[in-house]
Amino acid sequence: MVGSIANSLVELGEDNTTPMVPLVDNVGTTCLAITEPEVGKEAVEAKDASIEDVLVKYVEHLKERTQHHLGYPYNLDFDYGSVIAKLSGFSINNLGDPFIESNYGVHSRQFEVAVLDWFAHLWEINKQDYWGYVTSCGTEGNLHGILVGREVFPDGILYASKETHYSVFKAARMYRMECVKVETLVSGEISWEDLQAKLLLNRNKPAIVNANIGTTVKGAVDDLDKVIQILERNGFKDRFYIHCDSALFGLMMPFFNQAPKITFKKPIGSVSVSGHKFIGCPMPCGVVITRSIYEKKLSDFNQVEYLASVDSTIMGSRNGLAPVLLWHGLSRKGYKGLRKAAQKCLRNAIYLKERLRESGISALLNPLSSTVVFERPIDPTFIQQWQLACEGNIAHVVVMPNITITKIDEFIEELLEMREAWFRGGKIAKPCVAENIGRENCLCELHKI
Amino acid sequence: MVGSIANSLVELGEDNTTPMVPLVDNVGTTCLAITEPEVGKEAVEAKDASIEDVLVKYVEHLKERTQHHLGYPYNLDFDYGSVIAKLSGFSINNLGDPFIESNYGVHSRQFEVAVLDWFAHLWEINKQDYWGYVTSCGTEGNLHGILVGREVFPDGILYASKETHYSVFKAARMYRMECVKVETLVSGEISWEDLQAKLLLNRNKPAIVNANIGTTVKGAVDDLDKVIQILERNGFKDRFYIHCDSALFGLMMPFFNQAPKITFKKPIGSVSVSGHKFIGCPMPCGVVITRSIYEKKLSDFNQVEYLASVDSTIMGSRNGLAPVLLWHGLSRKGYKGLRKAAQKCLRNAIYLKERLRESGISALLNPLSSTVVFERPIDPTFIQQWQLACEGNIAHVVVMPNITITKIDEFIEELLEMREAWFRGGKIAKPCVAENIGRENCLCELHKI
């Protein structure tokens, strides 16, 4: 894993007075050791200058890395500079419940609740019927949703497709829940046949189902109506809880024409979304919304007199800056702005897929998704250069609002140039990825038409 | 709970164009609803102006609240403005393991590992023997430490004193662990007698003990040597795991003369500390350190190919700004600066306790602690005004570096003035708090000497 990042970090430290200590277990990372400051005005000035120097170089490094990023679903194009400048001197902490004010006054609940109301409206649940909070990341939203499911059905079995985000399996392990992995279709969607078969093997226990509204790797969407139908017709009526992991798509799908709705009018229990993905945010954050009737199950056990509040959140202390930034972003963009951005992502994703395919590169783009899956590039340096996320034979690009046509062209050109070398101008056969993304999307010698 | 905070928030919105929606379930909080922006240059400018207006008023509110804050262990005096200004345009995310670089290049692992190394050195564990990460708050550190304990001893029983932070009991519930509450002494320290008695009732199962290095309410420190001694002499040798919740004191105690050491040379399993408390940070964060031999137990189950990393952390996405700020704070302050600040806190805490007692107010200050516990003020408005944390008959002030003698004097004067009114110049008897803080600290009619 020694690639361009590692090298640039080593460079970062080379002409820096802070000693660089390479780590034994840490291939590719070099730490900027903290040294004890010396006494005296000159020493303090020298120390401050050396810190400044590290930061300036770090910023250059971040700029370059931000420019060459395609693999993770993060919109890296945002500008909260003026808001953050105003608030960076305060320790804003939304301790405990968003709806119950604690004694700690340096909070941002008035912004947080506005953000929650906005999402509740988006996902169609009334103010008095929902509970939720701004989380520290998508994982926390999944951890919360699945915990609510477990509290509703303590002996419930968790069902999640094998292409589910790893945080869901982590939750099962943390919470000591029985967990059944369900097969997926080539698209990445949950296999209905397998879900039904596995439900029937466990008829005696309630079902807690994680539905993926956009899988991590292929951006596949599980059909909520179908999940509900399968549950109900197999004897699970009133004995199921559905958590929707909508990390990325929870904010995009509502803006696609003809996309199925993420709505609490369907019998779902909770929805979580990330705040740093489609909207963009300088720190990971997210939102989880659940039904207020369930929240009581958690809060009864979590009265905290010390805070004069209730703590039903996973984390106790919660970053109060994130809700203000989300409030700012949503207030300025509005539904219209987000719709425009979401549709642009879809268009650019189609452009990327077409450019890949016309260049003879196997690629898949699921409907309702801006995640373009394609043959994994051979050279790890290239993967690192563009920060592609990979799994097995495939890699993906998640087209976010900051991924422009110009950037896509730059990427494609570089990829094609590299491929010439990797496949020696066609002398080496291209890999078959039919198993990963389907025959119809594979352009290997065997499958291309 | 309608007090000064609620009122000031209502005022915040009064002359603001954004509609203020009072929440049904949310006494004392008024949310700043997000409205859809209108189209057109003028409408956009008006919207931006209204957003700016909300933020300017919010900043004024935060300033006032920051000035009148005594109850929570947060050092509100820090200045990372220039660092944050440099970094606020990037989405820095330390996905997964701090020691294994993922494909996502916009990270701050080189700073994070430096911070971890610094704490490992402080708590005396070698680089190759520890594992840890920068968490999103103290709770995450406790959740991680206790999870490690449970993975080491899957059938272990969690023992925690009843004055333990609520996150530990939340962990027990989340992790489906058997949990035994242990009595405390008046000081807040764990009762050795009761710990021994309860251990003996459960000899057949390993013990996972949460030791408080500073309880939340009284700042009491459990004696690690004694905990270990009790475990070993009651047949738990090699069958126990100790997690140290050092949220506040983990960074202060090492700088007090004659304080017992928090050290991995003792058979402890993990230590967690908050980053936004004694050091001060604009967002909650923390550090957890455990032994690398244990970390393997978690990581074996959490290989994440998609990230090209391992995820043994509770949260998957991790705020990359916090490690840079911690690195900056620790680099500039160093051991010397922290020692000076910690000792000043102790001196000021003694000053506060003495001023309270000479004014006839019952008060307790534990050794090694800067948490001054005293009679709960009668008027909730006063409690909110100074943001005191309360439990039953008692309130506390946690003396942090930003709590100066001037501020203490201001607080005492206001308190004395209010008390004149509350107790009608002595016509109403002062409450007895002997049960909460001990006879020797109680100045009620019955107990004062």
Structure description:
- Two copies of one chain form a homodimer.
- The first copy, chain A, is of the alpha/beta class and 449 residues long.
- Chain A has helices at residues 4-14, 41-67, 81-87, 109-122, 138-152, 166-174, 192-201, 224-233, 276-280, 292-299, 321-358, 380-386, 405-422, 434-437; strands at residues 20-22, 30-32, 130-135, 157-161, 179-182, 207-212, 240-245, 270-274, 286-291, 303-304, 309-310, 363-365, 371-375, 389-391, 394-398.
- The first copy, chain A, has a seven-stranded mixed beta sheet, sandwiched between helices. Chain A has a four-stranded antiparallel beta sheet with strand order 12-13-15-14, with helices on one face. A two-stranded antiparallel ribbon of chain A has the order 1-2.
- The longest helix of chain A is centred in the last third of the chain and has 38 residues, at 321-358.
- Chain A has 14 helices and 15 strands.
- Chain A folds into two domains: 2-76 and 339-441, Aspartate Aminotransferase, domain 1 (Alpha-Beta Complex); 86-332, Type I PLP-dependent aspartate aminotransferase-like (Major domain) (Aspartate Aminotransferase, domain 2), CATH 3.40.640.10.
- In chain A, a hairpin with a 5-residue loop joins strand 12 (363-365) and strand 13 (371-375).
- Chains A and B meet through helix 1, strand 2, helix 2, helix 3 and helix 4 of A and helix 1, strand 2, helix 2, helix 3 and helix 4 of B.
- Chains A, B: Its cofactor is pyridoxal 5'-phosphate.
- Chains A, B: It comes from Rhynchospora breviuscula.
- Chains A, B: This is Histidine decarboxylase.
- Chains A, B: Pfam families: Pyridoxal_deC.
